[in-house]
From TrEMBL:
PPR repeat ranges, renumbered to this chain: 186-220, 331-365, 372-407, 408-442, 443-477, 478-512, 513-547, 548-582, 583-617, 618-653, 654-688, 689-723
Superkingdom field: Eukaryota
Protein name according to UniProt: Pentatricopeptide repeat-containing protein At5g28460
NCBIfam families xrefs: PPR
Amino acid sequence: MSIVLSISRRRNSYVLLNHVRFLRRFSDDVEPPRPEIKSESQESVVAKFLENLKNLPQHDWASSESLSSLLVSSSSVSPIAFAQITRRLGSYSLAISFFEYLDLKSESLNRRDASLSLTLQSVIEFAGSEGPDSRDKLLQLYEIAKEKNIPLTVVAAKLLIRWFGRVGMVNQSVLVYEGLDSSMKNTPVRNVVIDVLLRNGLVDDAFKVLDEMLQRESVSPPNRITADIVLHEVWKGRVLTEEKLIELISRFSSHGVSPNSVWLTRFINSLCRNGGSTNAAWDILSDLMKNNAPLEAPPFNALLSCLGRNMNIGRMNDLVLKMDEMGIRPDVVTLGILINTLCKSRRVDEALDFFEQMCGKRSEDGNVIKADSIHFNTLIDGLCKMGRLKEAEELLVRMKVEESCAPNAVTYNCLIDGYCRAGRLETAKEVVSQMKEDGIKPNVVTLNTIVKGMCRHHGLNMAVHFFMDMEKEGVKGNVITYMTLIHACCIVSNIEKAMHWFDKMLEAGCSPDAKIYYALISGLCQARQDHDAIRVVEKLKEGGFSLDLLAYNMLIGLFCYKNNAEKVYEMLTDMEKEGMKPDSITYNTLISFFGRHKDFQSVQKMMEQMREDGLDPTVVTYGAVIEAYCSVGELNEAVKLFKEMGLQSKVNPNTVIYNILINAFSKLGNYEQALSLKEEMKMKMVRPNVETYNALFNCLKEKSQSETLLKLMDEMVEQSCEPNQITMEILMERLSGSNELVKLRKFMQGYSVATPTEKPSPFDVFGLG
């Protein structure tokens, strides 16, 4: 293999000699140590040499009898002593003069080659630090070494290769490398060559050297430094695709080499972010573990975080089990990811148990894992969202006695949100008072949480009074505060009050943006207040604002609901005047409108017009038509369109469309067909939601079907599907016995009810038992 030839095709070669002679190996793979010389005679010789050299002019060195006699008497001195003398001279000019003196007197030297090689190495060290002048000096020294047949040490070779590369003389770097004996082309030398080639953009040549190192029986296998150099440079220059990078990591792994933890974590994050390639990330870590490559927790945390976002708890369990098998200890970040995921999936008991088991253990770096405020806040938030407020308060008390884990505003805001969700508004206000007593100031999140809770529970006046009290204490509202109040006013059709808060928002210096107008229009549209919506639109236009496509779509939806075809036409005309074209939402709204009126001929025309405008029917489009067929009892047509979706349009049905059909069959009492659709959802990886189960529960009216009902309830728990008020109303009708009511209570707390089971250990769930 000749890298020189491939480089010379692209760059002008700087040729020092017509024929490159191989330099035989002299020193070990690592730089010779620079210890203080322990032998008194050697130290004495070094001191005497330095004293004579510094006291004599350089031009008198060669004729000095004292130096000559000292040189003769130093026959027992190690060659390293001459390297140390050279370094202590302190400058390049003295160092090169000393080397020339030794070369002149070489017949008096014991182990001539070793002494001259190590001295030359020290001279090269000085030359490389000479700044702009280093280029010519390094070239001169390399030429001297070849002319005088002085072997280069491994360290000297590495220095020349690296410094030639730094001054842009990559050809010369390669000449040095090619001139080395094969025994000197060890792993450290190859690492330097690869680094120089990659930094100079010679990727193919660098990979030729790397390929030799990655051979199965390579005498110079890669090490972690190799991986760091290669992966950092190819990542920085984006010279390899993700697939090629994965293949390269696998090749390093076969030698038991792992990328450094920081780079690997970044790459795992990149894989997960770019399309969620969790399988590829999983394969990389599995391959590294299989080859016993050294690994730490951060890369696993990156994958766990991605799996957690996708609620793939089964895969998280497998990964943590693998970590445990390989002795890779979780750290405080691992703890946070797992607790957060468990809480979000309503597995708060498992999160609590795992939290207790992990705290106090030692992480990979030897530090004891200590819970921090983030962990406690996550658990408190999870308990509050489950309605387990007493347990949340107990954790708050525990935080106050834990070292370096004091509660903060986030802690109290989680509790406040929990009480607001439960409708316990007075208790939420008491928590605010407790917060103040503990020296923590309420913030705008506190304000918004309580205002939102009060508005949600029809306490608009309470929300206003609380807002005014907080303003007196210096807590100012933001856009979210005003949007909440405006929206609440719109829901109760108090348009004047909504506009009052709009004006207040302007007075407070909160800049109005599209969201504020959307909130007004959206609130009015949801309240079905079409006349007030028109008034607001007129007022906004008077103020110099114009509606955008999103606002037009909301208004068209409102007028379609009101069956006001004239206003629908007016909105479409206005859109056209403003230069706006209908989008998929506009067409979907119109298709739904015609579908409700059983005007399927207009539905087909709308779909054709949609395609002419370059818009493909979406899953919402099909959902609107399927729902229209179901609403008039045309289930056969609905099912036919449902089956054609994936075949003709390549649009896959989503949860909403499945729910429309399941609900339609459930109303007809056809439980078998409804259940079959639910099973098809699982097979096609479409996640059922609470509406799915509510429809199925509604169909199970007979006492003989109670066992099936309980199994569906367990399935909801497994799917982390939170029941709503409709679920409770249906189940309370179906489960009237005292034993069944106990099961219903357990179901609401997130436990299985069909068969008695022991509460799982978090170590069973996450493979740390």
